[in-house]
């Protein structure tokens, strides 16, 4: 092939693989949509079923337990059934969960269907980036891999926008809309649409060549490589297949025993990964995305304004994620984390101070001028600092920081820790907020400050390092 043919071939391959990766990344969209859609329904569900703080906290957060389970078993399922079939299973679970959640008769029905959806989210959150990495040419793998994080924040935005529109159309989340069903039920039901779109699109994507080679389906693997890499030369195809087969033969499958070390029973790098995951959640970011409509409504904003504020916050999150993707390889991971921790400490502290100025109690609670507007600005500034740093950077570091020998199992442990930490924060917020919103945000500000010390003392910069250097 001459130079012109090579460039044209790479262009065709890149265009095809971008479309394939975008279809797979819709799993991230469902991840964001399914976890955030509860935001607009919290107050209505609590009122419909007469729930206290503990039970509504569990109803909101229970999906995260399912996500931890789905993420843990996604890898073995994908190795057995294939990446594409596993993504289809995730889509089916999410569609069933959406239907079940929208038609529940009681809170424990909702918990069951949210758990089912959580398993689908957990599976999609692991398999989509794995599949994208396995079909992407090396030169564009990083950019295509970032589609997953972008899809997650777009899913959050779409869920909050959908919640706001449905509540506005009905005149309130607890008001009847179509077919005699309340608006909050439709907030869950509309999630069937992206789940079906995702399931349909992944029907048309090719199986991972790595999985096909592992199963001995060499002719099919060759066809996929032709499609995604535009490799037409038979010698080049055989060489690529040989590289994949050799990689699989030499691959070591680590277990939990390989993580044992001298620091409280684990290797120091494993503790760093676990704490990165825990701090990402303990700064309280998902309180904003799961409870923001309830939060703003509780301090005097109208229900309509509370929904609008949540949508604006999700737009901010999308925009700063794009900025973070542009900056990560220029500024580095550790500096961005430190900037984010410092910024979140200040903005969360400011939010705690604002809520300490609240007047009244219960439904009559309000933030007098100018504290309502200051709290609103501080909340969005907090999202900016998180979106620039701890949101995407933790996932980047978790994919890079572990030595090759233990990367897979260490990442699974860190990801499970993240889901558990998310569950703890999300389920505890209603009870914390009853003690006072100032207290709740003071707790998150404390963890943001501790995270800054942790970054400075313990986190290693990985910018510009090869993965093979991580064990040194």
From TrEMBL:
Residues folding into a coiled coil are none
Keyword terms = Cell membrane, Membrane, Sugar transport, Transmembrane, Transmembrane helix, Transport
How does the entry describe its membrane topology?
Multi-pass membrane protein
Query: Has the keyword Cell membrane been applied to this entry?
Result: yes
Q: Mostly located where?
A: membrane
Any one Gene Ontology cellular component term annotated for this protein: plasma membrane
Please state where this protein is localized: Cell membrane
Gene3D superfamilies, A to Z? MFS general substrate transporter like domains (1.20.1250.20)
Q: Which reaction does it catalyse?
A: D-xylose(in) + H(+)(in) = D-xylose(out) + H(+)(out)
Q: Where are the transmembrane segments?
A: 13-33, 53-74, 86-105, 111-132, 144-166, 186-205, 266-291, 306-328, 335-359, 371-397, 409-429, 435-456
Pfam families named in the record: Sugar_tr
The positions making up the signal sequence are none
- This protein's record includes keyword Ion transport: no
Domain annotation Major facilitator superfamily (MFS) profile: ranges: 20-463
Question: What GO molecular-function term can you cite, just one?
Answer: transmembrane transporter activity
Q: Which family does it belong to?
A: Belongs to the major facilitator superfamily. Sugar transporter (TC 2.A.1.1) family.
Which NCBIfam families would you find in this protein's record?
Answer: SP (TIGR00879)
Name assigned to this protein: D-xylose-proton symporter
Q: What is the lineage of its organism?
A: Bacteria, Pseudomonadati, Pseudomonadota, Gammaproteobacteria, Lysobacterales
